[in-house]
Write a structure and sequence with these properties.
It contains 15 helices and 14 strands. The chain is an alpha+beta fold and 477 residues long. Strands 7, 8, 9, 10, 11 and 12 form a six-stranded mixed beta sheet that branches. The chain has a four-stranded mixed beta sheet with strand order 1-3-4-2, with helices on both faces. A two-stranded antiparallel sheet has the order 5-6. The protein is globular. It starts with a helix and ends with a strand. Keywords: Hydrolase, Magnesium, Metal-binding, NAD, NADP. This is NAD-capped RNA hydrolase NUDT12. It is an enzyme of class 3 (hydrolase). Its main location: cytoplasm.
Length: 477
């Protein structure tokens, strides 16, 4: 079937779904199974359109049948639009609960395709998007033969990042995808990555195996000291590196790339900071596909050779970020730092300390920064990698106790902190329930987990789970 015919059938099927003629759509899918794999220019599949238009479709059985046929034909339930919206999120937004309860979140669904598809039901977070199409192949990192095979694979791609520069993101001309280098590119730069992998030296550019995406091995390469590569990119490719912020926030063309970028930047940053052994001071070299640094001293000269040292492995720094809800459930506490734009406030956050639970970190940060007291209700929401340089943002909700809501800026980390109403936050996050008129509050952008916390609170998507097993709507907190 030609591309033109496929496009026409896809459009006709979308039109049938839009008018809720699922009987016609089901017939078209049965006769043309390839439609299940097709997407439009905005990466919308038929599954996205069903979730968008089936919210008021009677009892929903016909729409459920459409979903079953699409999934059985290979439609990805983890697919996201170019705006980053998942199938589950769209079904929730447009009231397609009959799909959520009956098909998409049913783990015992009979369609064989469901057992091979990753159904992502947690909130979508930027830098955290992943799918079954991408594997970190961590089991290959200590296998020299496997690493060599992945490196010499003709389809292998390399992400150049000059970590010693303020500008380290290389994008395509469109500006929404990473620009990868091929073996042909590296040969033109006379860069011998095979030698770097097999015979690493302390002054070599760092080479890191990121994983395999759609059968393409992906590697990251710190090209800070590789002038031939830098010249090639500037003169031959006519491209230039961009500053990570905001360039790293624009990776929307490929679903998994923001996550792969976060992985690459965090690990290469770690390599750049840990060039010497913390036990003996000798130079270190990359090992295990870039997931370890090994001391270059003789085995009998350093304890790191005989035991596992955490300094030899990449680090991730957990940060508790908490949406603090008032005792009556109608307001949230937000703070602002002096360097932020005027009018901008966000959720309270801070690094976790050794020997501390996430819940305790939320209570401590709230008390230290604002003097408010979070009580028994502290609940996990979602997490987000934040590669500046290697943080893991742990998103939480916490509720204050009655009488514990008076604000006092205790440690001077914040310039200000205020309680905001649901209506004020609705306007700031662009909620569909917001009243008309300009927003007086500015808050985090959609790519930040703080935005997701606030949006799920104002839209009522978040639910408290009591210790007794009861679930309470966020609107009744």
């Amino acid at each position: 079937m030609s591309i033109e015919t496929n496009e026409t059938l896809f459009e006709q099927c979308v039109e049938a779904i839009a008018r809720q003629d699922f009987e016609t759509a089901n017939d078209m899918i049965s006769r043309n199974a390839q439609l299940a794999m097709h997407v439009n220019s905005k990466n919308w599949s038929l599954l996205h359109f069903v979730c968008r238009y089936s919210g008021s479709a009677g009892d929903g059985k016909s729409a459920q049948e459409t979903v079953r046929r699409l999934v059985a034909a290979g439609s990805r339930t983890d697919a996201r639009t170019s705006e980053g919206r998942s199938v589950v999120e769209m079904a929730t937004q447009w009231g397609s609960q009959h799909l959520l309860d009956g098909v998409l979140t049913n783990p015992t669904h009979s369609a064989a395709a469901l057992s091979t598809s990753q159904i992502i039901t947690e909130p979508s977070v930027y830098f955290g998007a992943s799918s079954l199409n991408f594997s970190r192949v961590s089991d290959k990192r200590e296998d020299p033969a496997a690493l060599s095979q992945l490196l010499t694979n003709p389809d292998a791609l390399f992400l150049p990042m000059p970590m010693g520069s303020d500008s380290s993101v290389l994008l395509t001309q469109s500006g929404d995808a990473l620009r990868w280098l091929t073996h042909k590119d590296l040969e033109a730069c006379q860069l011998d990555v095979v030698r770097i992998l097999n015979e690493p030296r302390s002054n070599d550019p760092t080479l890191v195996l990121l994983g395999v995406l759609n059968n393409n091995p992906k590697w990251a390469l710190d090209v800070s000291e590789c002038q031939t590569v830098l010249d090639y990119i500037q003169n031959t490719l006519a491209l230039s590196f961009k500053k990570p912020r905001p360039a790293a926030y624009a990776l929307t063309a490929v679903n998994e790339e923001s996550n792969i970028y976060a992985q690459a930047r965090s690990i290469l940053d770690w390599h750049a900071r840990y060039k010497f052994c913390s036990l003996c001071g000798s130079a270190t070299v990359a090992a295990n596909g870039g997931y370890k640094r090994k001391c270059s001293s003789a085995k009998d000269q350093c304890k790191s050779h005989g035991s596992v040292q955490n300094s030899c492995f990449p680090r991730t720094d957990p940060v508790a970020i908490v949406c603090i809800v008032s005792a009556d459930g109608d307001r949230v506490l937000l703070g602002r730092q002096k360097a932020w734009p005027p009018g901008m406030y966000s959720c309270i956050a801070g690094f976790m300390e050794p020997g501390e639970t996430i819940e305790s970190a939320c209570r401590r940060e709230a008390k230290e920064e604002t003097n408010v007291t979070i009580g028994a209700r502290v609940q996990y929401f979602s997490s987000q990698p934040w590669p500046f340089p290697a943080n893991l943002m742990v998103g939480m909700f916490g509720q204050t106790i009655v009488g514990g809501e008076d604000i006092s800026l205790v440690d001077n980390e914040l310039e200000d902190a205020k309680w905001f109403t649901r209506e004020e936050v609705m306007a700031a996050v662009g909620s569909s329930n917001a009243s008309a008129g300009p927003a007086t509050l500015k808050t985090a952008a959609p790519y930040a987990i703080a935005y997701q916390l606030l949006k799920h609170w104002v839209d009522g998507d978040f639910k408290w789970n009591d210790n007794q097993g009861k679930t309470i709507s966020s609107s009744k907190m």
